[in-house]
Structures are given as C-alpha cells and as structure tokens.
C-alpha cells in the first residue's frame, strides 16, 4: 500500500480485509500502535468528521500527529503550475510544500476539494496529485476533487456491518441542494458499490451525469466484480433497494456557472428523499448519506430521524475504516524499514 | 457526573472535592491517566486560556485529543432549528454534528458564546443545549451563552487557595467596556459565590441587571448555603470585601442594540476598579477577573499590577480545576464501562 | 539556556553541540523524552514548516503540546503598549496573555512577524519581547520581527552536514519578490555565517542595507570568530562560494511605503539566482533558501530542481535542529527542578 488516492486502486480482497478490521476495531479491539511514527494532516478544505476522525485514529495508533490548515495563520497559498513565475498571490510551490512535509512525517493525508470553476483543472485533481508526485511519502486522500476513498471504505464497512448482500440493489440518487457540490463523493460511492458487485442504480436528472472518466472507472470495477449499473432519470427507481444513498452534485454542463446551475435546479426541488421514497424502496431499505446533509432539501427529517437512517453509524465507521487503513499503511512501512534495517545491519557488519 | 453545564448542578460537596483536588494538582500531584479515552474540544467562539488549559489538561490525563474550530477550514456552519429547510448558509444541522462527534470521543467540551442579538435565542443557549441533547456523551460547557462553569470552579478553587472564609464578603462589580459582553461569566460568578455561602454584593448601574432566571438560580443556591445577596447601584459598596470581582456585561434592555448600549454607557466610564476602590475595600481584599481584561477601562494598571490582584493565579487554576473535573468525569466513565464489561463477560460465558 | 531569541546569544560551542546533536537525530538516534512537561506554540503569523516541525519535535520529545493561533476562533488580539487605555480593538494585553500561558506550559514558542509599517515598532520586536518579559518561562523565538534563530541553527546544521569548511565563502544575496519581506531571516543568516567564522559576502542592491543594529551584531560575532564581511551591490560576486543563500527583504528606506518599494524594485528583476549564478560560483557551490520561495522570481526552477539545491534538506534540518534545541532546554529545566526538588525534600525531612 502506497497511500490511498481512490478505493478502486486496492484489490477487492484488501478492501474486504480493511472493512473487516474496521468492524473489529468498532467492537473494541485495540489497533496496533506505532510509536515514533508520524502522520501529517493537511486541510485545504473544511472538515468536521474527517478532521475529528483522523485525529482520533492517529491517537489510537500512537502516532505523532502534525496538523496543518490553510487560511488565517495556517499554511501558505500554494502554487500548482509547473514553471510558474510566482509574482502573484501564491507564496509557496506545491513542489516544496510537499517535499518538506514529506520529510517531517511518514504518511501525509491531504484534503483539497475541487474549485468548481475550471473543470479541466478539477479533472487533473492538481493538489492531491501534486502531493503524490512530490512528497516522497504515502499520501492518503481525505477528499480530493475527484475521489473520497475513506468515505467509500467507511460505506463498504457500513454495508458489511448491516449484512447487506453483495448482489443487493444500491440506489445512488441525486438530490437537490442550494449549491453545486463536487463529484468526489458520488464518483467514489458509485465505484465502491460496483467494486462490491452490487446491482447499482444511478438516479439523476438529465444534465447531472457523472464525468465519463469516473463512469469508465466504475464500469471497469463492475466488470471485475460482476456488478451492474443502470442509469436513470426516474427518482422513483428504488423498488427493492437495500440502500438508498442520497447525494447532491453540480452539473458538468454548468461547471463554474452558478446562474445556469440555478436555472437547471429550479424544477428539481422534488429530488429530495422522503418517507414515500423509503416506503417505495421496501422494508429492507436503509438510508445512507456521507454528511453534512441539508435537512429537508436533500432528505426529509422524517427519513433522517427515522429507523431506516444509518448515517450516524456510517459516520462512526469513518473512524474505524481510517484506523484500519492507517494501521495497514504503517504496518507495511514498519516491515519495509525492518527490511531496510536488516540490510543496513548486514552492511554494517561487513569488514 | 454527566458533563457540566452549570456549576450549580453539582452538589456543594462535589464542588468542594473538585476544588481540593485542583489544589492537589496545583501542588504537583499527578492526575490519573485514561489511555484510550477520547476528549473532543469544539471551539465555536474565540479562546486563549480555555483552549490552552483544556489542551494541557487532556495531555496530563493521557487522553486522545480531538480539536475542532469553526471558521476558515474548520467545522461547518451549524443549523440549530428543528425542522429547518436548510437551503441557506448553514451546512450541517447540530443533530448530526453532535451525534457524529459523540461517536468519535467519550466526552465533548464545547464553547459557544451568546450571539448578543436575539435575547430569547441566547436564553435558550441553543448550541450547548443542542450538543447536550444530541451528542449521546457527556458535554462540558467551555462557556455558553448563559454559563461558564469551568471559570466558576476555578474561581472557587482560587478562593480556597487564598483561604477566603466561606461567609466572607464578595463584591461582583459591573465595569465599563467598549462592547456589550455576554452574561455567562457574571451569571456564573454570582451563582458560585452564593453556592459557597458568601455575603455577596452585586454592584451594577441601573439598567444592568442580570436576567431574572439567572438571579433565581443564584438565589436557589443561596437559600441552600445560607449565602446572602445584596444588589446595589453604588459602585463603592466594597467596604470589608475579601474579593472584588470585576466584570463587564451588556444591558438586557439594549440587547442587540449597540447604539442604545453606547448611550447607556456614556456616563458610566467611572465604573472602573482603581486603587481607591481596593483601598476602600480594605486590607484583606483581593482583585479577581476572569480575563481577558481591558486595562484602564475595566480595571486600572495600578490594581492589576499591584499586590491585591490574583488574576494570574486565578487563570492558572483554570488548568487545575478542569483537570480535576475531567479526571472525575473519566473516572466515572471507567467505572460505568467496567460495570458494563463485567455484565458482558457474564453474557459471553453463558453457553 | 533560557529560551532562544537570537542564535548569537548562544556560545559558538553550544551552537556546535546542538548542530551535532541535530545530525545525530537526523541519523535516527532517539531524543530524550520529557513526559509531563509542556510546550506551547503560539502562532501570530502564518507557518507551514515551523508549525509542522515544532509539532513533530514536541511529539518526539514526549511533551504535552499546547497550540494556539491568532485569528478566527483562535487567541484574542493583543495590546502591546504599557499603560494603554484598552477601549479599541485589542482584547487582551500581552502582560496577561504571556503570564497566563507561562502558567500552562514550561516553555513557550512564539511566532510574530514584523508588521512592516512602523520601523521603530518593528525594531523593538514588541511581541516576542513582551512574551520574554512577562511569561516567566523560557521563550523560543519561532521568527520575530528581527530574528529567526531556529532557521539559523538549521542552516548551521545543514552546512555541517554538507561538510562546508568553517572559513568557506558564504554569499547572502538579495533577491527580487513581489512584496517587501521582513528582515528576520537575512539578519539571522548573516549573523549565523559570521558566528561560524565564514568569508561572508552580502550582495544587495543600493537601498537594501540591513539595519545598522543587525549589522553591528553580525560584526560583533565576526570579530569573535574571525569571520569576514564584505558588502557589495554586485550580484555576481559569487566566485568560489560554497553557499549561495538567496533571500528577499524590504528596503528600510521604503518601510511601510509599498509604492516606493515597487518603484525601487522596478529595475531589480534580474536579482534572481539562475544557473549562470551557480556556474559562476563554481563546482562546490550549493544553493540555500529558508522557504517558502517564489519560483522564477527569487530563484529559477533550473537551480531549485538541480543538483546544487539543498533547500529540502535544509528544511528537514529545521525539525532536527529544533528537536535538539528543545531537548537541551527541557534537560536544563529537568536539572533545575531536580535541584529544587532536592532542596524541597531537605526541607520536608526537617522536624
């Protein structure tokens, strides 16, 4: 394991092992501890769950924690472009920021949302890509422009916890929201459910497709697992679903154009999960969402506060999934450095 | 103990025990340690002493620390209203924020000042109340709209340290300030001194009464302890005081109306504790203030830098009082979970 | 050791010892641990390297860490002036802020850049000076208006690591930049190279002298070490240099006058270190910079990405140098308090 950018990079066997370990940790098993090892957390975008759960995970693993935020008296504004003449507002190039932080910690976790203005730039996922390129240590993606693998691992764990069948129906439904949100979560949710081999329905209004590259990656994973993908604009296509997973995201057709986005959404307020949706889905259906969630816009109180909602357990699993992930990552680093140390010792005993 | 919202919730015997423990810790006794237990600190309002002292207390107790702030790349703006249609600026409902953080830590401490605009809202103390309602773990109030119990416990500890008689005279005097400040500290100071059974004088100009509900709570505590409350508009009513405790707060009559507040204060600049005040109080008088303090507006340099001021010891006692409080809280959690574990073990050995 | 304000306060023997220790730590030697001791980090100015490296150093030394930032919901705005009537925007006087934090930790590290507006104020270095005056505990300067001793110690360490001769040629060259930057780094770099006894060339355009007081301190150190200082406006005076150290800083003649500064710089864009500069310097020359650096303004990509650049190692040495410094500081505190405890024990056994 060399960090984690996108859950689909991991073999399904590895994802299963991590999810099982996460559930052991949830039941109170103590994780391994790695005294003297360092984890860095760099937040270039806001966070509640991610910040809290990574901090706690680091403490559980006995790691030295380094925490940085942008803004205020936090870290400097980063330049991302190669060859830039830095006479503007960016104070430090990502080449130096990444390389230096890579000297201070053994693993670096980074959060950097899409800007939502320049689609091509967002598709390059430049900040997390830059850290992966220049840090020299494993990078854990705490949500980039394109992927949110820790959420996906927590969601997988949650379905294991609930005993959801690997072939069950999983509906990812677009939802209304006052703003155009990034695609990292829907991309990751879709890919995760298909890597799991599920019968996936992606329900979204016309104009709200995910990007072809994300769809292609989801289909690649589906073809390996036997998962099935149906795309529909029928928000009621939930019959028989085990999971109704709501999420809002912005239209690729209106990227960076807030007015067009508002016009497109004017008639979409009914894309909100309510009791009727859950009833239509059937008696086994559970409601999932990554949080934070806009109540009574994305989902009605009656669902969120009702018995089908598992969003709090799902959020708790962020902690356990990330602890399992970091435990594995640091264990592999320990083994590598023991390997190195053994060969060093060999060299040292040579005459 | 199930967190701490207001010091008066605790029995006087418990407050005495915590204050004595705080003084032991101050003398260098090591607190108990709770490895594997987690404390969350959530700052929705600014802080120096509180932040620093809670961080250090957590470290002394060996706790896993999770720290969050609002603003910048910190936590999301919270919605407080039940049933809200969240299509505005609030990104996350306190129901989810509280419930999720309650899954990541064993005890959560929250700071959220009054907004100072809508009195009814402030009297409902909605943020800390929301966390108490939804977090599912004990909530420690690090200063809410209405109460600042950790300050009150530190102040009690400070008077024990100074050997102040339980029936001594305690003057809480309003002071001038460029802004209308919240009532959490004066409410808590008054209630604390009366719970202690002291001869309390509340000196404030006309128009600067504390809220009837806070006064009623203070009187309830006084009637149990034999404490005595006199309210006066004579700022010189300090004769024979053991403690002169200065604090500024806004007028309930001008809540949210900065102009009216300024008009009311125009003639109140003399409400500033000076050497003459302390001399009038007499040879045993000590000066207290919760800090931060506006020098030469609330109190003159000559007092703050003179021998009667105990404000730095008082601030130091924040650390020891909070360490004692958290030690007690986590000890009780340990005992509860041992209880739980014992019954679990019983279940597990059943055939 | 009573904190560290300016590297030149330390004897050269002590600097050498700390640099050697830093290199041991770099090679993987474990530092001493000081459980139960507390370190505070107070950031009143932005930081990436400093924040990350001090956090990691604290963890390596097993210290209780207290971290505070100004801005947002961080610490209050500080008043610096003695006797101020605080009816403006400053909420807390540095006297209280320093004294209180000094009660919560054993050593306090502070970062506070120069304001860049009022030269006289900046020359008084009022924030770090205030903490040194009022905190009652050792203060480590994490970059003040005038000095950046941790950078200087890391730079010394880096030259030891590279085996740079103590009499070698060291060129500190001014560089262009879109903004007028503080003098803390150039002051510290110059003084450090001269304390080391090097053959120092300070190359800067007319109008970009360092302050006479900083130059006097540098010369004082040079006269003790046998170091040599040449000041020139020839940016090509690099022949035979072992180190080319680039840094931009503002003109004392234009302090606080951004327009004048821009006019002065209009013709200075060629003050940028490029491949030709390094070639002219010769085959042994290494490029150093404290970071963050404006690529292609201060130094060309061809240098920063080439084999002569040691900026990432230099940044890594911040961690090791600071760990060595704090280890020494806490060791001395331990020895002092053992001394105190011994005499306390003596008192206690007396009848």
Fold and architecture overview:
The structure is a homotrimer of 351-residue chains. Chain A has 351 residues and is of the alpha/beta class. Chain A has 2 domains: 7-147 and 317-329, Rossmann fold (3-Layer(aba) Sandwich), CATH 3.40.50; 151-313, Aspartate/ornithine carbamoyltransferase (Rossmann fold). The first copy, chain A, contains 12 helices and 11 strands. Chain A has helices spanning 12-26, 49-60, 94-104, 119-124, 126-134, 149-162, 184-195, 212-225, 258-265, 275-281, 301-304, 311-349, and strands at residues 38-43, 64-69, 78-79, 92-93, 107-111, 139-141, 169-174, 199-203, 228-232, 241-247, 286-288. The first copy, chain A, has a 5-stranded parallel β-sheet, covered by helices on one side. In chain A, helix 2 (49-60) links the parallel strand 1 and strand 2 (64-69). In chain A, helix 3 packs across helix 5. The longest helix of chain A has 39 residues, at 311-349. The first copy, chain A, is globular, with a radius of gyration of 21 Å. In chain A, 56% of the residues are buried. The mean pLDDT of chain A is 95. Chain A binds chain B through residues 30, 43-49, 51-53, 55-56, 59-60, 69-72, 74, 178, 291-297, 301, 304-305, 311-312, 315-316, 319, and chain B through 36, 38, 40, 64-68, 71-76, 79, 83-88, 91-93, 95-97, 99-101, 103-105.
Summarize the structure.
Three copies of one chain form a homotrimer. Chain A contains twelve helices and eleven strands. With 351 residues, chain A is an alpha/beta fold.
């Amino acid at each position: 394991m060399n960090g984690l950018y996108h859950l689909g990079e991991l073999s399904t066997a590895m994802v299963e092992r991590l999810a099982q370990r996460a559930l052991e940790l949830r039941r109170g098993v103590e994780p391994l501890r790695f005294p003297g090892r360092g984890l860095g957390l760099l937040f270039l975008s806001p966070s509640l769950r991610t910040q809290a759960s990574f901090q706690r995970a680091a403490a559980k693993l006995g790691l030295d924690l380094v925490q940085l935020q942008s803004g205020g008296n936090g870290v400097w504004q980063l330049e991302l472009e190669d060859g830039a003449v830095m006479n503007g507002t960016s104070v430090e190039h990502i080449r130096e920021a990444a390389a230096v932080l890579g000297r201070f910690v053994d693993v670096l976790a980074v959060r950097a949302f899409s800007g939502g203005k320049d689609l091509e730039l967002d598709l390059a996922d430049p900040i997390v890509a830059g850290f992966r390129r220049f840090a020299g240590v494993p990078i854990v993606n705490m949500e980039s422009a394109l992927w949110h693998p820790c959420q996906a691992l927590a969601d997988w764990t949650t379905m294991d916890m609930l005993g959801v069948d690997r072939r069950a129906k999983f509906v990812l439904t677009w939802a209304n929201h006052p703003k155009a949100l990034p695609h990292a979560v829907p991309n990751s949710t879709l890919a995760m459910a298909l890597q799991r081999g599920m019968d996936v329905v992606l329900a979204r209004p016309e104009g709200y497709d995910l990007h072809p590259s994300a769809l292609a990656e989801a289909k690649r994973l589906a073809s390996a697992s036997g998962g099935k993908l149906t795309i529909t604009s029928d928000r009621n296509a939930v019959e028989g679903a085990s999971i109704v997973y709501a999420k809002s995201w912005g239209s690729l057709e209106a990227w960076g154009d807030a007015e067009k986005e508002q016009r497109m959404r004017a008639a979409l307020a009914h894309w909100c999960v309510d009791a009727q949706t859950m009833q239509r889905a059937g008696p086994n259906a559970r409601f999932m969402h990554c949080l934070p969630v806009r109540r009574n816009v994305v989902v009605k109180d009656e669902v969120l506060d009702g018995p089908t909602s598992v969003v709090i357990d799902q959020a708790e699993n962020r902690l356990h999934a990330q602890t399992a992930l970091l435990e594995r990552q640091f264990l592999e680093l320990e083994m590598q450095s023991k390997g190195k140390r053994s060969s060093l010792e060999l060299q040292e005993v040579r005459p």
